[in-house]
Amino acid sequence: MSLLLWWSLYYPVSISPLTEATSTQPACSPQGAFELPGFSAQGDFMMGGIFPLHYRVELPGTDYTHQPLAALCQGFDPRAFRWAQTMRLALEEINQSEQLLPNHTLGYKIFDSCATPVTALRAVLAMLNGQGEEQSPMCSGASPLIAVVGESGSSQSIVLSRTLQPFRIPMISYFSTCSCLSDRKEYPTFFRVVPNDDYQVKAIASLLQRFGWKWIGVIREDHDYGHFALQGLKREIQNTDVCLAYDEMIPKDYSRERVLQILEVMRHSTARVVIVFSGEGELYPFLKEFVKQNITGTQWVASEAWVTANVLAETYPFLDGTIGFAIRSGKVPGLRDYLQTVNPRSPLMPPCSGQETLLEQHSAYMNTSSPRVAYNVYKAVYAIAHSLHNLLHCQAGAGPFHNRSCAHSTNVHPWQLQQYLQDVSFNVSGENMNFDQKGDAIPSYDLINWQRGPNGGPRFVTVGLYDGSKDSGKELAIQQEKILVVSVCSASCAPGSRKAVRRGEPLCCFDCVPCDSGKISYQTDSIDCKECPEDFWSNTDGTMCIPKVVEFLSHDAMGIALTVIAVVGACLTVSVLAVFLHHRTTPIVRVNNSELSFFILLSLTLCFLCALMFIGEPTSWSCMLRHTAFSITFSLCISCILGKTLVVLAAFTAARPGNNIMKWLGPKQQRVIIFSCTLVQVLICAAWLMAAPPYPSRNIQDQRSKIILECSVGSQLAFWCVLGYIGLLACLCFILAFLARKLPGNFNEAKFITFSMLIFCAVWISFIPAYVSSPGKYTVAVEIFAILASSFGLLFCLFAPKCYIILLKPEKNTKPHLMGRK
């Protein structure tokens, strides 16, 4: 595909590009790929169309060692897509008309400029060269285009006009307003159906005078449109009492640092009226950053480039009250119905499923209530069609060319069509259309004010008219009663915020402060925020109170995981119990009193299962049972281990001559020790339940946005007495086991009891700070984790070594081996 026309260095200057190429001329050769999306249709006469179907472009990096990649267009613009469809509609109407260009058809090539001069140049060269045609008709004959409709941006139009000028192809712009384009010496083939900026700045200067706005700032884009608009505005206010506070330029290549500098100037300036000369593509990211800076009290004056930009009005509500001049609206018959026939799977549109409603998904595309730019496109197409019709119906001897000749209908040159364009006059939708000597249309604007409709959506209300053809001082007519402008020091505070008066400034100057969490304001300009009721909390916007989230350790992912671990622990303990019962006659089971081992395993099973009582919504019974069951089962388990420790210590002490201690630690005495130690805990729990039992409570203090359902321990003293007693038993057991750790024997159980008690104490010591600092349901989860961790520690430390010998090393399960004898 061809991208650029490559002219040899030896190309003769005297040869016109419109003349037929001779054998001495170099052939056209493609210099790169061209893949811009577009529309095309064949006809007897071809017309070009260039529209900013995307509003920004990412240029590829260049390292000068490889061929650069194609520019990447981003940001689909449904508004410009509507303009392109308007051109297609107008051409189809003309082709079906019996009065205009009968027996002839108009074809078109429509390309995307991506709102960038470089891409616009690529597009117009593609129109001239043809995509994929190495032998371009531009090199061998008349132009394949008779005229071009484009572009929206003035910088793009300047590039296009200069590119088309050597081929004398006329171009009609539908939205380029730079006054520089009215210079017939520089742009002899340029026409437009939109007034130039000389009239716009006159209208804006008149508006400033009418409202008494004397201290203003200007923001402009870094293109010819912005440069010339600023020059014109300075010229218009030069001899008035209007003063310019600052003039800032949005960088061509977006830079957040530069934008922040501009916003800092706006923040510290006392000028509240800001005039913006920019297209919506450049302005959109600037306003996105403006929102974050909390700058208030700005009265925006929009140029015609963005005064009817739906995407800005919908995205940025703070622009309400914006006022500016828009090109006149008109009627395009059948436009809405035609737009609805467009295939939603077109490659130019953003990805979609094909089921979306265009009215909802692309409101800017379907906004045909008062077409302005689309109406200009419609007029531009009809201007070309009427001019071509007049050219083809030229009477011999009455033509505009040499010797009053006419053009040949089979070989129409663009420069011939331009002659007819200059003199064309026709009526479209009730409006008389013609061009002045500079190629400009009649200067006329609607004064637009941004307001909100009953449904909250943006509305562009026409509140006045500027007619440049009227006498000086009478051009501007305003309907004051319809206008909504932001002429206050500070903008209104929206619901969800309150007014905070600025120190040392009038009461009308204030800041809008968001309501604190838990407080709301549901009216505009609220002085204070109202606190939500106890069981309610503010929503994200701070405009209404919503019920607080109720939180407890339920059977969610965390609860299920803890449940599974507890059940697995209980099943594992029962399995160990079964192994011990099956091998109850073996020495390793009998050596330290098998009855105590069975008691320990049963109590450990209960310890695992009591963790399940902590999961679920707290009730009166579950709150009382969960703490008492936990404390009693653990006391029983530690008491059994204490009894076993005493037996181990006594067994080896009794081996000394004259020591009869074992008669005091028989099975009955062991049961008494276990019963007595457990009874103490039972009595503490009974006193706890009678005096101040645990109960379900609603905690709204720890996390104010939630209601935490938890079990209050009732008596803090009783709770810590319960834990303290378990700790006392564990410490006593640890000390006794530590004393017996070096007693002889290959299987000294005192070592394992020492290690198990060490793990048990470590778990519960670390539990205390974690329990105190954990929020909400995680407090309960920490307690369950401590129960399960300590239970697993006891199970593995006490019984894993025995199970290893019973199941895997049965040859060691003998009394001589256990006693350390050969």
UniProtKB/TrEMBL annotation:
One of its GO terms (cellular component) is plasma membrane. It holds the Pfam family ANF_receptor. Gene3D superfamilies: 3.40.50.2300, GPCR, family 3, nine cysteines domain. Keywords: Cell membrane, G-protein coupled receptor, Glycoprotein, Membrane, Receptor, Signal, Transducer, Transmembrane, Transmembrane helix. It is found in: Cell membrane. The chain crosses the membrane at residues 557-581, 596-616, 628-652, 672-691, 717-740, 752-772, 784-807. It comes from the Eukaryota. This is Extracellular calcium-sensing receptor-like. It comes from Salvelinus namaycush (Lake trout).
